[in-house]
Amino acid sequence: MFSSRTSWDRTQNALAASIAEARAAGRPLIDLTESNPTRCRIVDLAPAIQQLGNPRGAAYEPDPLGHPAARAAVADYYAAKGAPVDPGRVVLSASTSESYAWLFGLLADPGDRILVPHPSYPLFSWIASSQAVELSPYRLAPERGFAIDFSNLERNIDERTRAVVLVHPNNPTGTFVRRDDAARIVEIAAARDVALIVDEVFGDHGWSPAPRDAAPTFAPTDRALTFVLSGISKVLLLPQCKLSWAVVAGPEAQAAEALARIELVADTFLSVSTPIQLALPDLLSSQPAITGAVLARIAENLRVLDAVLAGAPQTTRLPADGGWYAIVEAPGLDEEQLAETLVREDGVIVHPGYFFDFEREGYLVLSLLLPPADFREGAGRLVRRIAEKRAR
Q: What single string gives the DSSP state of each residue in 139-186?
């Protein structure tokens, strides 16, 4: 009766069961995986939400690709980065997940392949299966700071490959694509006639000092058909307001055809609400201040984490360039067992590395958005538990 595309394994794993049991028992938990900015008390979001009640949103005049004022505001956002973008090349959606679904369906027939980086966020498999396309991983090399392993990437491009996904900076490793690598992957995509889907949702959140050779946004790309994704969930800390975008870049003929096809898809759903589209120009004016507050929170929690780890033998934080996460490497420990113990014994939630498809054991992924007092307490419990396990 149901499609095989939705026959996912919904069995609860041991870690999820431990978390559910702790919450059902009313035990307090410090969630070091918290990435919902509306629960992290970084900035006061009430003024932004109040804008949605403006009477200008009372009239409904749908435009499949998005309201012209909102698309122009997105173009202005990129112009401020020194990246000229034609508002006519901007497509609005409710979320980057929705954009991925539209693009997978736009580019690939059932059975075709999309290449995705490993490690990366475990979102793509659900979307790919809903679109009946296959995913194939390409390697980010930990021995080179999780840079693209080009020999592995090129081996994995075949006649069924339709697109390569980049996450810039990567989630969760926090590594930006370097300029030389960006130029190289654009040339590969152009030569092999595959599209690039570049997720830049964390692009504003580069840590200081930023790497000099980090590539800027891919939005001005003109050699290969490229879709650059972002949205207000991360840019403005407003995931509840549901507005994202894709900038369509690349050769004129390919970009025009992509836009014509996406317009029909978007017209089918009309998923972005009018009030948030009309509020977007004003909301984006607050982006620099919001980004500053996020980066200040991240910097403070990084200082806390580094201080706590200074007394933890054989446990380190991996270098990163940006994003909302830190990766703690604790080699020789069973990360899944450690994560379960932390919930049961210490009241702390962490992501084990396998969640993100790291190629070896011993990684824990922590969100850097928590209020510093909570983060300090959770990180301290984590380090004490690691020390206790190593002492056995």
A: EEEGGGTTEE-HHHHHHH--TTEEEEEEESS-TTT-PPPBHHHHHHHH
Neighbours of 380 (CB within 10 A): 17
Domain ranges in the chain are 11-35+288-391, 59-285
Tokens 């702390």 correspond to 348
At 384, list the tokens. 């004490």
- What are the CA-CA distances from residue 145 to residues 16, 142, 153, 299, 311 (Å)? 30, 5, 16, 20, 24
pLDDT in tens, 44-87: 999 999 999 999 999 999 999 999 999 999 999 999 999 999 99
CATH assignment, 11-35+288-391: 3.90.1150.10
Q: What is the pTM of this model?
A: 0.97
Tell me if 165 sits within 8 A of 117, measured CB to CB: yes
Distance from C-alpha of 256 to C-alpha of 249, rounded to nearest angstrom = 9
pLDDT, tens digit (0-9, with 9 covering 90-100), for 112-127: 999 999 999 988 999 9
For the chain, helix, strand, coil in percent to 5 are 45, 15, 35
Dist. CA 169–CA 142, nearest whole Å: 15
Q: What are 113's strand-pairing partners?
A: 134, 161
Lowest mean pLDDT among 35-39, 308-312, 371-375: 308-312
CATH domain 59-285 topology: Aspartate Aminotransferase; domain 2 (3.40.640)
DSSP 2: -
Mean pLDDT of 34-46: 97
